[in-house]
């Protein structure tokens, strides 16, 4: 009693703590008061126990330790006085959780309080159970909560429904207990109880297929409830900003979305209602926008009519014109998800989407960029690329890489002409060359090399761009390569497609020397420039002494690769000058993937060569090679499998390649599709090298038929301990949209015991602005992979 009298009241404690000028003073006050609280607990003062615990809870909220008050919470909960129970239950919710065994001690007290007829006490017990109830407590008290679901008091019913939601989340197998009361609770007129009931049914349907089937019979009743809400006039009790109980409307729409997914009959029942909600909801306030957005999500998730889906896309289009940035962001994200299934409807809002690129908010402009890239097709590629290039010139640095890569992918996929493709790529390199993908240089040189009629045009464009700016390294590399290959066309000065450009040999050499001497040039760029100078020695008609001097200078360069190249070129000048013109000829025109890769794959017997052949091909010739090796999931559209080689020693091909006689190869192992989601598909193809029967080569091929690129794609694999697994580097981390170039990765698995193979895969990637992670096991591998 002495300790109680000397301690502060709660209001005085709060005031004294607030008046503390330093952290040390605050700690001193709290330590002193905690000592009084401990002393009071030891004395067992029943009259002031709830006051002491209330002060301790305030100390706990400030971040100081208060664990010594846990047992006092149990004593107060067991007290018959309501003032004690109120503070005791509050303390239990703050100080107890599932990690502490003490919380199990209040199970009997909660059970006793739930069986009492006092509504306030029942409410306290239900709140504590829904906040801290563990799985064991939920199993023990489920029947008590079920009885309270049909109590006459709406106050108790509402709290019992929310407690049932917590129980279902903790212990999904309790679903059968709460199914019967839900049907009666749907006739409830109290909006709070009805909202809790809809939430409970939603949890049941998400966790139990049997419950989903059971509640699909109640779709007409849910439709009637929602229609009543929509048609009801203004109510001071439930209306918010002129919308009748938007919280209840949103929750019903979410439940309808679950019930109508992949179910034709339920979807047909709610079609008319969704159209009514979409057309009659007031959009001048945020409450109406929330209801409309849930309506759009429901329309897109169920099997709705085509006209209804167009209406939903138009609603999202109106959201793009809203002044609220959050609403515009939600609209862009939703349209990005719909662009694959409703491409034509989303295309109608392309001008508005392009306008969103100029948003100062970085998150909005990023979403608008992703959606703009997904909207590019063969009919609008010129206009969309022009808009995206304008955005690239002024976009923030963190968006330049995504924008530049997206423009290059779109140009490669939908280019109307080769010249347009070259011009577009050059403009991207000139604007954001340092942010393009690593393969941009190789792709552009391949494109220019394959367009023989544009060689003169390309070399002039690149020379002019290089003369203006040598800071963009990919552009400098392509320009140096092109000048080295087609420098003679640059000096001719005759090109109908460009303005007359008179260039002297000395100017070309001086420009390349400037690139070599620039501090901005990377070692790889200097290598391109040095090779270009060497090639110009056979294309220019003047004296080569200047070129020889420059090359000889780099014979002592600190960069080993550049030094080696210069030494080899010097040797070519000194000892093999008669062969220089033949060695430095123009690169012949080859298709992408090339016959050389084809020939190497045919001659390959080693595992390493097989692993290199898998990810290379990109064009029809390469796809034929992959079909020959059975590294893809099936033959391409026009690829024809060649007839088997003649194994006799007299065969012309065998004689040409000087290969030994060999028995016919074993039958190919069938491919296997192991994953498919939203257009992303994963296929496995298998090869067992004849010389190493315990080795299995698995090529993982990822293809994407959706409207958006799959980025940051990572595939990881695991096998049992008796196997040895080696993952080769993938061909890329982006799977282009709409059936673009597949991404491949080779797995080398050694199976010395020839045991049945089990494979566990983990996929992580970004798709339509969302991060996805999938973990699954592959147990149905063909027996040919391990026998």
UniProtKB/TrEMBL annotation:
It is a peripheral membrane protein. It holds the Pfam family Alpha_adaptinC2. Its main location: membrane. Residues 594-619, 631-650 are annotated as: Disordered. This is AP-1 complex subunit gamma. Keywords: Coiled coil, Cytoplasmic vesicle, Golgi apparatus, Membrane, Protein transport, Transport. It comes from the Eukaryota.
